Structure formats: C-alpha cells, structure tokens
Amino acid sequence: xxxxxxxxxxxxxxxxxxxxxxxxxxxxxxxxxxxxxxxxxxxxxxxxxxxxxxxxxxxxxxxxxxxxxxxxx
Length: 73
Prior knowledge:
The protein is an all-alpha fold. The chain is built from 4 helices and no strands.
C-alpha cells in the first residue's frame, strides 16, 4: 500500500523527485487523497501529463522497492 512515509522514502532513495515540486505534490495528492489527477495538476498550475508521469514514477518505484524487500505492495 502506498503511504505518505513510503512516498517520502521513495523520493529519498530514487533521487529523481524534488519533494516540494508541483508535480510531486500533485502526484502525492492524487495517490494518497484520491484527488483526480487533472484537479491536482490544475490546483498547482501544471499540465495533467506532468502530474500523471510523476504519479507513474512513484508507483513504479514503489513496486520495485516492495519487490526488492519482499514487502506487500
């Protein structure tokens, strides 16, 4: 399960996210709060595709980390 702590750990390990970037915040809002990706992107003034790509990178990193450590996704 994706949690706030998992996302912060992914950001630290992966190094490709800036935790205060608009795309990262929109993706976190979408993944944790269930906000529509288009609404989360619009609130931060970014393109929907940018927020979607950030969410996709978080999901992929989460799956890789969980698989590597034998954790439940």
